[in-house]
Amino acid sequence: MTSPQAIPGGLRPDTPTVLVKIFGKDRPGITAGLFETLAPYGVDVIDIEQLVTRGRITLCALVSAPSRGGDEGEMRATVHAWAESMRLEAEIISGKGDNRPRGTGRSHVTVLGHPLTAESTAAIAAAITSNDGNIDRIFRLAKYPVTAVEFDVSGTATAQLRTSLALEAARHRIDVAVVSSGLQRRAQRLVVMDVDSTLIQDEVIELFAAHAGCEAEVAEITARAMRGELDFEQSLHARVDLLAGLDASVVDKVRKEIRLTPGARTLVRTLKRLGYQVGVVSGGFTQVTDALQESLGLDFASANTLEIADGKLTGRVVGEIVDRAGKARLLRRFADEAGVPLAQTVAIGDGANDLDMLNAAGLGVAFNAKPVVREAAHTAVTVPFLDTVLYLLGVTREEVEAAETAD
Ligand SMILES: [Mg+2]
């Protein structure tokens, strides 16, 4: 008998092997039944794959040729008789050796659709093929609130695949993330998020402006900044200046008005369970991010600080300014403190001032972002649920829900 353990590097390519495929209505005992049927033939198991889709089981077993109890023909007859008794379909194919080795250049491709159409799935699969990639495995990560499917791909460079699939994603209005495969994906990581319109649904300066009765003026400055007439720091100072004289008690009111983005708590809780460190960087204010850090149990938080004197906002900010470059600098600082290489960081943001941070991170996720941000980021999420980011990290909805239920 040829034992795979006896040969370094696995099975010899010329060793006779038998592939047994079982398909039919799933019920308890099928897997046990198949292997109980094979056991008298003294076969070794080389590979098993099993999946159940809407109550139908597909079970594939790759085994060595029979070493006792009869020849391959007899084993085939026994398996077919068993399958017939179970009202299952069996296909048995003789061959040689193990699975073909996977090609070099391995990636995980996560596709998020709402809905995921056959047309967009065809486009993704065709693009993988045209990049000389091979789809080794496909499985569903989530069915709610989006359909999320992961393709394990080999044989093509991750960066090339990412560029090509980004075009298909934009064309078909789906979200596609391509990350390289490897231990890195399982390692503990650091996730750093923007706050306004990312972790929360609001823009904090606008909440303050509403209390100061200067919403229109603040909106005008924001628009000028977006037209490129002011840089972030200039617009920050100009907007905060409009808040001068506002009673400091407004800070508490604004904290209460903040609405977390759907899925924000689930995202943070799940990341913490995975042992990740989580932080926020904001062009907004520590008066708000400190409260978020406290309530969500974040490891890191940094933002601008509104100056308060004699119970009133002075219209100035104090300390280091968190702007576009500052956010990227803070990502590096947090990674350093967390002891996580930059390549293992994930940054999430929606605005132009998040771009440096998104590009500096190992994975930059544009979250419901403007086109300019979406196009420059590694990947984009265009559904308004922050926990969908978990699927990009390979976490399934089932795992998330099981952990929530267990608590
Ligand atoms: Mg933002």
Automatic annotation (TrEMBL):
One of its GO terms (cellular component) is cytoplasm. Residues 19-100 form the ACT domain. The keyword RNA-binding does not apply. It is an enzyme of class 3 (hydrolase). One of its GO terms (molecular function) is L-phosphoserine phosphatase activity. Pathway: Amino-acid biosynthesis; L-serine biosynthesis; L-serine from 3-phospho-D-glycerate: step 3/3. Its EC number is 3.1.3.3. Its cofactor is Mg(2+). One of its GO terms (biological process) is L-serine biosynthetic process. SUPFAM superfamilies: ACT-like, HAD-like. Keywords: Amino-acid biosynthesis, Hydrolase, Magnesium, Metal-binding, Serine biosynthesis. The active site is at 194 (nucleophile), 196 (proton donor). Pfam families: ACT_6 (PF13740), ACT_PSP_2 (PF21086), HAD (PF12710). It catalyses: O-phospho-D-serine + H2O = D-serine + phosphate; O-phospho-L-serine + H2O = L-serine + phosphate. PANTHER family: PHOSPHOSERINE PHOSPHATASE. Belongs to the HAD-like hydrolase superfamily. SerB family. This is phosphoserine phosphatase. It comes from Streptomyces armeniacus.
